[in-house]
Fold:
Amino acid sequence: FWLKSREPLAAHVARRNLNSSPTAMVAMDVDTSAAVDMQALAALQVGGRVNFGLFQQAATGASVRIAGRITEFQAGAKSCTITTTDGGVVQVAVADVPTSGLLAGVFVEAVGTKAGEAALAAVGFYAFPGGGDADVELWDESVKLAQLPQLRDLFAPAQL
Structure:
């Protein structure tokens, strides 16, 4: 997507939204599977998406969402390893999370709290269609864009 003018992207989006007619939200079919501890997820604050670099900067106990490929996983195990979109490696504890359907090589977004420098206590996983076909560079770039002050509002969770 290229802008034809030199205005900042956020200003372009705001202007475009003001000039367009009101529309209703359109339902979309998204083929994802989830392995979630629903009680723990409901109690967790909505975390921001991070890559490994941003994960390391987050405070221990912070709620985060980190994506990558499962690189080590044994059926019935209480932990797995994820190689993140920027090449980092995170050990993920999966104590009360149902793990059926999770396999090595699958692209997932793990949701939980930071438990250490390279450790996450997960309350859920979201697997995406195509398993290992996700564009990790594109995902990583979107995580970086969400950190820019000019675009932060476009990526922030809605306040209810």
Observations:
- The two ends are 31 Å apart (CA to CA).
- Residues 1-30 have pLDDT under 50 and may be disordered.
